[in-house]
Amino acid sequence: MDGLVELNLVDLGWALGMMGICLLLSRWSNLALEGQLLLATGRSILQLLVVGYVIAVIFSLDNPLAVLGILAVMMTIATIVAKNRIDSRDQGLLPLVFGSLLISSCLTLGYAIALIIQPEQWYSPQYLIPLTGMVLGQAMNSASLAGERLSSTIKSHRLEIETHLCLGATPQQAITAYQKEAIRASLIPTLNQMMVVGLVSLPGMFTGQVLAGSEPLNAASYQILILFMIALANLITAQLVTEGIYRRFFGENLSLIS
């Protein structure tokens, strides 16, 4: 197979032209998205270039502390983003979201690294950094969807929940249907992707490996692994986040906190 065709600055300039077309289309259609498109374009270029240089340095160092350091930064950013999507004013959610993402990511990555990939070094940046990025990014979305759904549902169904409590139900029994609904909602994007993968969409992991010259079957195997890792991490994250959020709504006397 031919190797990957490297892109130079001229190629990236042509790629930038696509965003220029987006700007023109937004202006022509009066969508008023020009500012957001410019900001998104600038941030994409800056963030990816910075990440590229940082990861290149970490690869050259081949040091577990450097790898764990960048993973900690990724985890912190994911926690803040997910927490703000659930409730930007509630700072008490930070430990809950961080703990949920940490547990789900560690369990999923530990399983994959120890039992499946088995690299020579457990901290191999070639595997640990990209796998963490893919799993953590999806788990962050799952935490946001499940947490926001359950939080808003409890707030809008206070009367129903209080009625269940008055009839002798425990807090867990009173919100169990809402919790299950929130978890299911958070998994819809993951399940949709798994249902049509290879038929409608070709995920980034598969496409990237094929472009780099890997055998398509090997690329498909890695993509299967990634999808299963994402599904497990998302489910664990959603369960932990919703469990923690529902407990925050009830006081020591098992009544809803106003």
Automatic annotation (TrEMBL):
The keyword Transmembrane helix applies. Pfam families: UPF0014. Its main location: membrane. Keywords: Membrane, Transmembrane, Transmembrane helix. It is found in: Membrane. The chain crosses the membrane at residues 12-30, 37-59, 65-82, 94-117, 129-147, 220-241. GO terms for cellular component: plasma membrane. InterPro entries: UPF0014_fam. Belongs to the UPF0014 family. It is a multi-pass membrane protein. This is Iron export ABC transporter permease subunit FetB. The keyword Secreted does not apply.
